[in-house]
Design brief:
CATH superfamily of the largest domain: Periplasmic binding protein-like II
Strand content: 15-25%
Shape: rod-shaped
Order of helices and strands: HHHEEHEHEHEEEHEHEHEEEH
Number of strands: 12
Distance between the termini: 58 Å
CATH topology of the largest domain: D-Maltodextrin-Binding Protein, domain 2
Oligomer: single chain
CATH class of the largest domain: Alpha Beta
Number of helices: 10
Length: 299
């Protein structure tokens, strides 16, 4: 069936006048009459009773009018939703991130995406780097926010932030009470809380490399599975940790954050997706990310 004929039929059925319907459709009356006659021939029924001075719907025409309105409304909805999915304004975007990312610019980036694309369903989850890499490769997620950067030619990557490392110290320790930044080697005898426990290499190995550059390796290493566990262990006095500077924006009872003097290569938070993932929601996220990075830095 030609959907245009349904549109013509609805106009005549609502106006009950071929001349007014033709004017409404911005067409001449004879072609409109031919289209309605063709529709009746296709269906094998009369849709209108045509008297000299009056046009009325038949019972069959009344049924078709109700159904035709629904059909065209559903068709318009289908077109609208198809266009919206195609341009990424609706649909789903799966984002996973390391735990420490929630203290930096990532929340503001996600908030900005929600404001620009309120009808996109965001599925957010926390993973360590190895889980992020595996989930990206297996196409279980669309976006991975990793620390440190994931390696691989199959990923597109943009650095979200590069920030210094700082010390996370239990309240009440000598280093926490000092007004001046401690030397990193001065806390070498403290238990170092490292994360994640596995798999390796990981952020834990990045911290060990920093210590080694300062001429020591921690004598006691306490391995935690993730950042949240590590900072909880610091808060109860189990040991100290080197953490991204941005985590200090979220005070934690029992924890003092301090700058330190010594080797500080910093740490980067990087946004990744598969290069072969051309979902419009992913493209929109990276486009927004580039605009976000042009704004003055906020952590």
């Amino acid at each position: 069936m030609d959907f245009r004929r349904l549109k013509y039929f609805i106009a005549v059925a609502e106006e009950l006048h071929f001349g007014r319907a033709a004017a409404r459709l911005d067409m001449a009356q004879p072609p409109l009459s031919r289209q309605i006659a063709a529709l009746e021939a296709e269906l094998g029924v009369k849709l209108f009773d045509r008297a000299r001075n009056q046009v009325r719907l038949t019972d069959a025409g009344a049924v078709l009018l109700d159904r035709a309105r629904t059909i065209l409304a559903n068709l318009e909805t289908a077109y609208r939703e198809t266009r919206a999915i195609g341009n990424g304004s609706i649909g789903q975007l799966r984002i996973a991130f390391v735990g420490s990312a929630t203290h930096g610019p990532l929340p503001n980036l996600i908030k900005s995406f929600r404001l620009h694309y309120p009808d996109v369903d965001l599925l957010l989850s926390s993973m360590n780097n190895a889980e992020l890499e595996r989930a990206l490769i297996q196409k279980d997620i669309d976006i991975a926010v990793a620390r440190p950067c994931l390696q691989g030619d199959e990923f597109r990557s943009i650095e979200l932030i590069h920030e210094p490392l700082i010390l996370a110290l239990p309240d009440g320790t000598e280093a926490a009470r000092r007004t001046s930044p401690p030397l990193l080697r001065d806390v070498a005898s403290e238990p170092f809380i490292l994360y994640p426990r596995r798999p390796r290499p990981s952020f834990a190995d990045h911290i060990l490399a920093v210590c080694q550059a300062e001429g020591f390796l921690p004598g006691e290493q306490v391995l935690a599975q993730d950042y949240q566990t590590a900072i909880s262990l610091v808060s109860v006095g189990v040991g100290i940790a080197l953490v991204p500077q941005s985590v200090a924006l979220s005070p934690r009872p029992g924890v003092s954050y301090r700058d330190y003097v010594g080797r500080n290569p910093g740490t980067s938070l990087t946004v990744h997706s598969r290069r072969d993932n051309y979902k419009p929601q992913v493209i929109n996220f990276f486009t927004l990310l580039k605009k976000f990075l042009k704004k003055p830095p906020r952590i």
